[in-house]
Design the sequence.
């Protein structure tokens, strides 16, 4: 569903921060993106969620040429991608409910249609008691659960997360990883950037993409060939 071929990225006239990046992401898989600080993880994720265009190379997303996408075609492709950031990026003056409902409102879903799914989602992330609270009154872990709920309320094909557990305690990090795992079991492809080796060890089936000074290594060998044994699981105890 995603293919990068010899992708390079430079900011302005500086040297390339990403060079010769080639990989494929397979539908329904879980990927960790790791590497030292400054290796280019955020830059690679920004390419994936179309916040940045590559300086060279080929980039195919959901079968579309994403490297040369006309501006007008970007929103439709972008709607198929959910994004979660380390610093949550919630809208401060909106309640938990309204933050999670935001992508549906922007997509033109009626208030009547969205109430059930948004409340189910609030329940799923364990925040029913905070439905009408503003983000500033929540803990970091609670805010990140709102951010994850907002990112997945549209059931994206691809979920991209940039150090989503960086600002929460270790127990909450495991809780959040379970949410990403549950989404993944429902068929969403997940790419999660992290430094946290313990967290990576908890997701045994995940593939690991490692960046070193702007170049990608493939320690699990899974980026070019999909694992033969793997099939998406239909099991789900989640509300949607
Ligand atoms: N907007 C920008 N303009 C110029 N250089 C940038 C910009 N964003 C990132 N860089 C540079 O690109 C390189 C890769 O940065 P990036 O943030 O992608 O790495 P990272 O692996 O995510 O690091 P960290 O783990 O510290 O967040 C760094 O040298 C950084 O200084």
Sequence:
């Amino acid at each position: 569903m995603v293919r990068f071929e010899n992708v390079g990225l430079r900011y302005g006239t500086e040297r390339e921060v990403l060079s010769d990046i080639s990989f494929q992401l397979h539908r329904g898989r879980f990927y960790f993106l790791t590497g030292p600080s400054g290796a280019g993880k955020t830059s690679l994720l920004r390419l994936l969620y179309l916040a940045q265009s590559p300086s060279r190379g080929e980039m195919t997303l959901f079968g579309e040429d994403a490297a040369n996408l006309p501006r007008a075609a970007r929103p439709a492709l972008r709607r198929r991608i959910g994004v979660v950031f380390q610093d949550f990026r919630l809208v401060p003056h909106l309640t938990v409910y309204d933050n999670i409902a935001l992508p549906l409102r922007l997509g033109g879903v009626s208030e009547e249609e969205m109430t059930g799914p948004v409340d189910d989602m609030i329940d799923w992330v364990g925040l029913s008691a905070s439905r009408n609270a503003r983000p500033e009154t929540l803990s970091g872990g609670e805010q990140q659960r709102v951010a994850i709920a907002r990112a997945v309320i549209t059931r994206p094909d691809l979920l991209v997360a940039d150090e989503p557990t960086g600002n929460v305690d270790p127990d909450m990090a495991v809780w959040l990883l379970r949410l990403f795992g549950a989404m993944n079991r429902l068929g969403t492809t997940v790419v999660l950037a992290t430094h946290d080796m313990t967290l990576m060890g908890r997701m045994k089936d995940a593939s690991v993409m490692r960046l070193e000074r702007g170049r990608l290594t493939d320690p699990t060998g899974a980026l070019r060939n999909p694992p033969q044994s793997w099939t998406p699981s239909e099991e789900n105890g989640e509300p949607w």
Notes: The first strand starts at residue 2 and ends at 10. Residues 227-240 have pLDDT under 50 and may be disordered. The longest helix spans residues 170-185. The radius of gyration is 18 Å.
